[in-house]
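Late entry, evening session. Most of the bench is empty. Finally got around to the prediction I had been postponing all week. Sequence below, unchanged from the version circulated by S.P.
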Amino acid sequence: MVAPQVGHYVFARDDGQPLPFIPGQFIQVHFAYADGTATRRSYSLATIPDPVKGPDDLVEIAVSYVPGGAATALFEGLEIGDSINATGPFGRFCLMPNDNNQRYLLIGTGTGITPYRAMLPLLEKAIAERNVQVVLLFGARNPAELLYGDEFREFANRHPDNFRFLPCFSRELPAPDSPHAHPDVRHGYVQQFLPELSPDPETDIAYLCGNPDMVDTCAEALRETGLLPRQIRREKYVSSK
């Protein structure tokens, strides 16, 4: 468990081969309902690829638990060594090799933060090679639900001039003596603090991932600032049973 209602799962391919993927892509897990009807769920890859070694055989995902959900039952019933059926990777919610922007705005809620974890090595490379600026605006209800928060904070500490981590807590703020308590913590929803970042079509590319209402609201706000559709990359996460 990496949050009260989120599990982190690590799999290995049964053929022992690596899974080449571009950070931001997802896999689809295939299973069946109790009546035998086939279905599937999509999960962004949380794996952090080694920039030197390249892809390995580990496949990491974060799964939100939905009470009564068939996918939740599947994952909660797994034991160490069990297998799942999955295909992929798929998707284009990725950092593009020809990006020449000055800043990335990464906005996410819940497990929508997962692809940004996988992007960290590429962001580090962009920081080193072209001094890109990155802002990660992450919405959670409380500090316990700040998925991979320690990793993002550690990355921000390593790159204080280029990476800014803004956790937004809609319900409960961290205690004053908590490691999550710092000047960039905000109380509210991510869409409330988007204007604070002063999105600029001359410099920015924005990524939106998570709750569909948040994605739609932020996308509209970004369009109003002048960002073009190609500068707004979106991925909606819908909790499904």
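Two things to note before I forget:
The longest helix spans residues 114-130.
The mean pLDDT is 92.
Will write this up properly tomorrow.
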